[in-house]
Write a structure and sequence with these properties.
heterodimer; A: mainly alpha; about 0% strand; flat; B: globular
């Protein structure tokens, strides 16, 4: 990267913004625990965020476009979901997903 | 409740399976940086200063594509907005800590540290909650940072045919599925995935946020209806 000042500026700004985001509620403790509606909302955060992060990556080749990337990742992802469902094991899920992906890639 | 060493270790141990994610992730981040023309120091700087793998990867791609400053920053912020939600979710467990300590704790907030901690708290185990989280966070940081170095200095050895970047969505699947504990959560996840798919091509990775927000509100609303409110 030629323009290294620009690079470090971007990294610095993103670093500060990200820390701010991370610290946001943690710094405001006490405001949320009494509020039952908030607590009920918060409980859906993990499943929503992880779903929104993982599913598109199984189908689309890269962000910002709708190009379908091929069946290997979709199938591997499907297997991983099944393995996760039955085993609840992180290692088994990641391992099986990668194994299926490699098998599909090198057998075709 | 106040057993720091035990809690720190417990958190680290509980999060250790996620090293299978953090380590390849770090290697990929390091290798991508160098491939895009960023120096090894730049790669380490990203992992140390930003410490947010998904946004690091996208930022690297955007830098390589010569995207404008604002697009890069806004996209990075959008991707990391989900940490807002993690922060809110964890804040109720960090009540008694002094401000500076909370900022320090916040630095380590990642998907893996969050998922480990929330799961531990829900299981109701007897630990010092912030320290448990810190144990997970520090282990993830260590794995991620050092593997960034490995990826930056030795990344060209790994054949790209291995598609190690698939570890990223696999990690989220591994965290998602066990977290679905009832029908509302399932609907929530499906809605989030659906909207994220439809909005995938929206600029600055907005689709991710739109999907997450949809899922959260849908799950919440359905649950309220069941409870007759």
């Amino acid at each position: 990267m030629d323009n290294s000042l620009r690079f470090w500026l971007i990294v610095g700004v993103l670093g500060v913004c990200t820390l701010g985001i991370r610290a946001s509620f943690i710094l405001m403790t006490g405001k949320l625990s009494g509020n039952e509606a908030c607590l009920n909302l918060l409980r859906f955060i993990p499943v929503s965020v992880f779903a929104a992060l993982s599913v598109p990556a199984l189908i689309f080749a890269r962000s910002g476009s709708y190009d379908f990337q091929g069946n290997e990742r979709l199938l591997a992802g499907f297997v991983a979901i099944l393995v996760a469902w039955y085993s609840k094991s992180i290692l088994a899920t990641i391992g099986s997903g990668m194994l299926v992906l490699w098998l599909l890639k090198w057998m075709i | 409740m106040n057993r720091p060493i035990k809690s720190l270790i417990a958190g680290a141990v509980a999060s250790s399976p996620l090293l299978t994610s953090a380590i390849p992730f770090g290697v990929i981040c390091g290798a991508s940086c160098v491939e895009a023309g960023i120096s090894e120091w730049g790669a380490l700087g990203m992992s140390g200063i930003m410490f947010a793998g998904v946004s690091q990867l996208v930022t690297t791609q955007l830098l390589a594509q010569d995207a404008s400053l604002w697009v890069i920053i806004i996209t990075g912020v959008m991707i990391n907005m989900r940490m807002f939600m993690y922060s809110a979710s964890l804040s109720v467990h960090f009540e008694d800590e002094p401000v500076l300590k909370r900022i320090g704790l916040a630095y380590f907030l990642t998907d893996q540290a969050y998922a480990t901690s929330i799961k531990g708290y829900e299981e109701g185990i007897e630990i010092n909650k912030p320290i448990y989280y810190l144990g997970a966070g520090m282990l993830m940081w260590t794995g991620f940072f050092f593997s960034t170095a490995v990826g930056a200095y030795f990344g060209n050895i790994i054949p790209s045919g291995w598609e190690l970047d698939f570890i990223v969505p696999l990690t989220f699947i591994a965290l998602l599925v066990p977290a679905i504990k009832n029908w509302f959560m399932l609907y929530s996840a499906l809605a989030a995935a659906g909207v994220a798919l439809l909005a995938h091509a929206f600029p600055c990775n907005m689709g991710l946020l739109l999907g997450a927000i949809t899922g959260i509100f849908l799950g919440y609303s359905l649950e309220r209806r069941r409870d007759g409110q």
